[in-house]
## 1
Amino acid sequence: MLNIAICEDNREIISFYKLIVNKFILEHPGSQIRLSLATRDPYEMGSYIEQSDGEMSFVYILDIEFAGSSKKGIELAQMASRHGDNVKIIFISTHEEMSIVSFRYRVSPLDFISKEDGMDRVKKILSQDLENVLLETDSSKKEKTFMYSVGSRLVKVKFDDINFFESSTNPHKVVMHTKYGTAEFRSSLKTLAESSGDLFRVYRSLLINVSNVLSIDGKYVTFKDQTKFELNSRLLSRIKAWLSS
Amino acid sequence: MIQLTLGIGQFVDAFTIALIFVLLNMVVPNMFKNIQNWIVLGLSVIVLSLLDDAFNGASDILLVPIFCGLIKFSPSLPIKNKLVILLMLGIDVVISTELTALVVLSLGIPIGGVEFAFACVVLQWVLAIGLLKTSRRAYVRFMNKIGLSGVTLTTFILMSLGLLLLGIFGVVLTARILNAQTKMLAVTLVIIALFCVFNFIGFALYAAAFLKKQKADDEIKQLRETQVYVEELEKKYEQLRIFKHDYKNMLASLSVMSQKENAGQLNQSINALLEDKELTTDTHTTTPEQIFKIKDALVRGMIYRYYIRSEKNGVSMKVEVEHQLEASDLSVPITRCLGILLNNALEASSSLGKSKITVSILNDHSSTDFIIENDVLSDQTPDMNRIYDSSYTTKGAGHGLGLASIKKISQRYNNIFLETKCQNSKFTAFLSVTEEK
């Protein structure tokens, strides 16, 4: 079930979005899509997010500023992202260069549509985005994501991209190694190991993503992206034993 | 130097060794809170004074290993500093002992008696402790007066003094073994002590002058940068002035055209004007106004410096600042990290020809993110798991130390986080500073 929720303070614009979404639902009779909320009150949206079932898929269509309200679109988006794994956010707002940058890094939205481009274009892009979300939710293999936050920046990475975590010399931090780079954040290997069954604590300061191990030979663990990690034979056999069990 | 009778000699000797430990306690407090220290001190006072009787000068040599190995104090202190401390205390004791000997002998107290021993011990302790306190105070006052401070400098001065003191020790030991004359020794001591003092003053003055020169150089550099900035502003103003002038001319010609009522041509001209490059290019992103939102002078200076440098290298740099950025107590480490990241971004971009660096500063109540993004060629993607190794570089020898030192900084501070990734031909570095401690 794909839930779509809209929050926009302008009466005309919100009914326009509702039209687009309803049309989209009609065009896809085979899929389970529902327009579960369309509200002009950001606080109503907030309580909806809080009560939403984290297991389900959601698309939130949000404005950034709401007239007469201190609640901002970014707060709603941050709340929603923290609340579930399958959450997609589409911002539709007036174009401001800075907000795109800041939103891109804070909540990594699916899209940022500019109202200034005209409502025809909004309609076109929004339908396209919904189409993409539907394709992704329908595909049988759902991608597992890993989420961490640094200050107000929330980052989601594909679980398959993660190779390993290691402890930092700073006791409050861990370092994540992915296909694309490294990231430090506040956590502990113990907490991370408990969070997923695919993470195996090889020794005190190393946690590897066993689902991403390609081979173990000689002195190295090789990950699927060809990254090699040198370990002694005792630790390598521990990983082997864990993999075969 | 003066052979005393058995019991008295040991008595004086034991008190001399104990004196060194008491002086050490003055320099490094809390030394006597450790039981092991008490045992080592007690044993070494007894054993060394007995040994001294058998082998003249043995205690002087044996004190070094006892000091550096057996006594537990300031475990983080490097051994060279411990040696310097020992030498300083040693020379203090030696000077006071020699003075005591001179005074007691000139008073005519008979050598070898109990009276003699007590007079020696009391005078020696008073002199040694007094000397240490005064010299310490004088040192601090002198350094304050010439406006010098800093651990490195102090260590350096102490080391150079220590070397000289080592020489004195050599003379003292030789004199003891050769049973040389007390007076001759005293004269040598005074000469060396004077030499030490002058050497020290000379060195300190030289160091002060050197530091002042460096400070002045820094200021000149800063002034030069401000100069560049002012020139930049003037250039922009000049551009704006020319543009205004052109624009007025064009409006005038339009008004002439409209009087002739040639609607088609008028329309054409207006459209051409609207598509004018000067109007359509986004001046907002090519000028550094955004930089003024950074109120932290250190951070602003660093970003501005690279803004100018990238312009010179034909790389366009875009700076975006979300809210005003105030100075924080982490300005120095942040600026250091930014310098390294910007330098890396610029070096990577300069080799690409036409490329872009984007610097975004996002801040809200809970954190500040500095995001630096630059283009990389897809076949020149660095090995992201190795970029933090101090030896790793894509730029040839002499480079590559940058990210390793950023890593050290982020490890030292609980609330500085570093993230780097290379995806879709873009290298992005995130430097996040969170509010939590």
## 2
Amino acid sequence: MGPALYFLVSAGLVFASGPGRGEVKTVERRSVLEDQHGYYPCSDCHADQETNPKPRFLQEEHDSPLEWEDEAGNTHLVEFGEKLAIGDLLGHGGQTGNRRRNLVKVGARLDVAQYMEEQGLSESDSVYVLTHGGANLWCLDCHNADDRDYLRKLNGEKLSFDDSEYLCGQCHGPIFIDWEHGVHGRTNGYWNRELDQKDVTRRLLCIQCHIPHAPRFRGVVPEAKPVPRLDPVSEPTAESHGHERHRGEYDRLGPHPWVETASTGHAEEPAHDGEKH
Amino acid sequence: MTQRPSDTQPQGEGNGSKVNRRGFLKTVAATAGVSCLPILQTDANAFSLDAFLQKHFYEMSKEELERVIERLENEYKKTYNKKEFRVGVDPPLAGVRFAYALNLAKCIGCRRCAKACVKENNQHRGSEERGDQIEYIRVLEMKKGSLDLEKSNHYYDHPVPDKDSYYMPVQCHHCNAAPCTKVCPVEATWQEADGIVVVDYNWCIGCRYCEAACPYWARRFNFSKPRIPDEEVNTNTHYLGNRPREKGVMEKCTFCIQRTRKGLNPACLEICPTGSRKFGNILDPQSEIRYIIENKRVFILKEELGTDPSFYYFFD
């Protein structure tokens, strides 16, 4: 088989496989820098500021909070991290689970009590906490100390804020590969890019879903629960896992002798009139 | 004591009954005449002779289908405050077989998919009292480490995600060996060439056999006349998809056929805040869905039933 024939067969196979999704790079990306209304470049204000390499908590020092507006016109606050009462970091904030572990790691990075004394902070004062990477990560691992308008890769190269996903990909390699293939994160618009005549398909960048300084998703209040169809009277609870609903249906038919009782927690066996089995 | 049918039957002439042959025929003729009255009415909202005599979707000629579409669009316009409807009949795209994948590790159970689906697909909003609301997607809260569907909770009402739970949204799996289409006595539901299982609402007789046959509890029945607020009705519809339904017919997820056959993503995917939902053409080796099936830990719900679904769950 000659190369020409091979090419024709290959082209035929590709054609027969239907429309393709197109390359990731064809998806237009929104510029992060354009979203930071009036605050970029950072060097306008920070050029003469000496870099402080000492670990510390962050506090809002801009005159007005940093905001950005998405394509739908919604305004979002640029957050430096998770806003917490500094008292929580002293170990009696009542936090549990991953968040607690995260805070313990953050607290291990510096002496919180000493920091409060130095800064004149009380336990109820709020600070922004970098809840990303535990004690292993600090500002200057990602931000370029020599040029505030850029990020910094692990090998020391400068990186534009617009290309921040490559910074994330340094540590989160498998997720970055998934994102490149469109499997991780959101891609809105057309599943078939060839039919996307108006070029509306968008793939969101890492930082458009995750706050870089506190990337874990926060809890949300879910939409309204569905209305039980057959028994709107007896509402199941979270503990019952919907079992009460079924029991409510049975109640309409009269009590069943083998239904579990609330007091004993086990099924009541029917009487056998003294008969032994 | 319950009367048996034989107790109420008229006695024959030999037993002294006053019913004679002529009187009986008069009664039958009068009853038939009264039964036909609705057909003779011309009010489109009450009953349509054209609708009564309408053929199956695939038995209609092009001209007949155009007339049906025009009639439906006029009916919907009258019903929904003079809004202009478009009832599309876009055919399956060549070389396309749809598949859906859902990332259980990312879903947070916010139910936004279920609500977006209701709006996009003109589902009956229902009422609290009757409990006749229709939602194609049911999000199950499952305990971590368990796949016991019977112990799942549909009615959770607390901030999500719960740290001890994971969330499994269930909807129509568009099975390639669909039990629901096999049991339909009138072939009102079938699988299209692109894999979407659809219902011809005008051909459905409302027997609900398909609902009973579906192992994923994916079909919904209109027990009441569907109520959709005028301002929320979606006028971009498909004949086999989200056009307004009547009381007494079955409906289900169609992968948003009115969107996906134009290349768009389904509404549930568009709204998902975590990007847990992925959709595409499984025949395309470059597609996202193909990448998931080739590279992720994919599983099929109730695989042992052999339904061969087009809907996959995966973890990462």
## 3
Amino acid sequence: MIGLNHYLIISGLLFAIGLMGVVRRKNLLMLFFSTEIMLNAANIALAAAGHFYNDLSGQMFAFFVIAIAASEVAVGLGLLILIYKKNGTLDLDDLATMKG
Amino acid sequence: MFEQIAFYFFSVATIVLFLITAFSKNVLYAMSALAAGMVMISGFFFLLDADFLGAVQLVVYVGAVMALYAFGMMFFDATKDVKEKNASTTLVVLLGGSVALLLTLIFIAPILGANIEASYPPLEGATNPQSVGLILFTKYLIPFEVAALMLLVAMIAGIILAGKKMDISLTDIEEDIAISEEEEMILDEKDGEK
């Protein structure tokens, strides 16, 4: 039988993949993709916990996470477009302008 | 039996697709893999009897968020590979894995000993969307309204941030930068002659 632990392990694996992407990526757009993976992994864990404890709160919090992800993308992409207009690149290293 | 087959299929598919997203060099491949992974994630939600959440995942993530990324990608040059100066992969895997493990332990530790009781169980004889609606509009009404306000603020922020100078082409701006750099070089040469 598939239990809560199965879902939590898969969610942890996906979260680790997302975190590796965040640590590894230097391109800002790719970094955003990795944060989406992490948010989705958290959603799986919330929905699974809600299902196995017979509680709807898990699903509720997953809804709010989805709402937050949507607004994050809207604001983040606007900022990315501004950065691209200003610098012509999305590389994180090029944003380090405060080096002495 | 079918639940197990479905679970393992969805887990293998999501892991492979998200690995492509996290480690691909091409933006287009990464985005398509992310969209496909989101579809597979909604499969998990349907397995968990969260029908409404699965539908929302499909509509919001695969429909809206990925379309937004696709539109955003049109502003950037997506055809060429992304060149990144990456740190060593072993270090990244070690750091990412250990931090993820640490976060999992931090969040699980207080829950493990506690005796969790369901505060909002699904209603008897109601379908999932019905009970979700009832709980959302009674117990979680204020967070719902706050989320609505947050989405409104995000929409205004997106319009103001991305809408500025929308009539100017990005390629023109790049040419302007190149031209102004050339002018500066010419000016520098003149200064040198003096």
## 4
Amino acid sequence: MVKLPIYMDNHATTRLDPRVLEAMLPYFSEKFGNAASRNHAFGWEAEEAVEKARATIASLLNAKSKEIIFTSGATESDNLAIKGVVEFYREKGNHIITCVTEHKAVLDSCRALERLGKAEVTYLPVDKYGMVDPDDVRQAITDRTVLITIMYANNEIGTIHPVAEIGKIAKDKGILFHCDAVQAVGKIGVDVERDGIDLLSLTAHKIYGPKGLGALYVRSRGPRVRLAPIIDGGGHERGMRSGTLNVPGIVGFGAACEIAAAEMAAEARRLTDLRNKLQAGVFERLDEVYLNGHPTQRLPGNFNVSFAYVEGESLLMGISDIAVSSGSACTSATLEPSYVIRALGVGEELAHSSIRFGLGRFNTEEEVDYVVDRVAKEVKRLREMSPLYEMAREGIDLKSVQWRTD
Amino acid sequence: MAYSSKVIDHYTNPRNVGSFAKDDPSVGTGVVGAPECGDVMKLQLKIDEGGVIEDARFKTFGCGSAIASSSYVTELVKGKHIDEALAIKNTVIVKELNLPPVKIHCSVLAEDAIKAAISDWKKHRGNAAEQSKKTAAEA
């Protein structure tokens, strides 16, 4: 029997790996020094731990230690990269190229700059699999473009963008390329040299590290990227991000990256197998189920699916012993269905019916079996209760119906 | 957001799920909402000659609160005269199910479903009355 509830929402956050916790603990107690204290052993000890973690994180990205800037999380990293570049390079231009399925931290940073009159932004569309076309990127470039910001892999549908191609376009045109790689780092190979990335956001809590700890990779050479800080103060992190470093968090981030580097290949294979088992099980048990995202260019643990005629939140309620998330309007604060799913052009009703399963390090095969069974039963129950399912079975084309929405 | 125990109860054990034959003249069918809005309710009322609601069925595509609202409404209207049923306000549903502010639209939809079903029944009866008048005239 599996242990309930089951956590299968690993795109939202991940459980801290016990090995990471172990590494962090001393830095909450006896090793409490401030890494900026330059004149005593407590400070040196903290600084040494921070630099060790910085080197580990850098090596996971094929970057150099000094190119890693610690932040409070990927939201701050995205803000710093976008606002920092636009501010610093304002003499050069003010145009940003991004894409409609980016994380809100990227989209809202862009919108904030638009509102302030500091930037003009092109929001590129995606194809039906959620992938941006590198040619669209190329064509959107103007002589005022200072930044291209495209994510590595999407947090809802798991689609992996052609990042290396975009990086090459950016390099050819001499434009900086920022990549929000929160979902990709530690899950698939990310290499800032191979991929031509100049700025990259990442966070600890998506890779079995602690919450509240992020980083921004800032290229130091070829080109050397400059940023205007958004947080001013004591000049920490080469002046790009002031504030006393979160030493235990950074140690945890380092430990999480060390484990990821050692286990990523095997873990990706295992999670792909588990994901495929989950997907196959669901498709076998139910008809009218639609995959959201790319069939192959997808994160190992991601399975985003729409169950036609069943509203997402009601399904979540029915499988309350399984933690997953939905693109349904009812689960969001804005009461609008997922903008990512809608961008795929699948229709609003399938956005309302979408469920995201996110498999991670601690999920087991038994859990997948349980989830397939629970989901299939609940979808069938809810379809029996669904007027749309009934109409579809009577042969009514739901698109031709005049709905009353007064 | 946690659900109220009454919402969970109606969601887990929905009352009166199902359908009546649409062409039964004693049945009024109301379908409200739209799939792209994430809520569609179908409410059917079986109403006798005197305008008393004898039975009710529903099917709902929507969140747990939408399912619970329609399930509760089927219980609420049974045995009521259509004039009483038409006077039911969504606030009664909100109160009974402890719906939070973001779910009030579910109760509004349920209120609309009652009105739509009764209006459909009246239309049926109108047609039926006309039909029988016609038949009488022809005879």
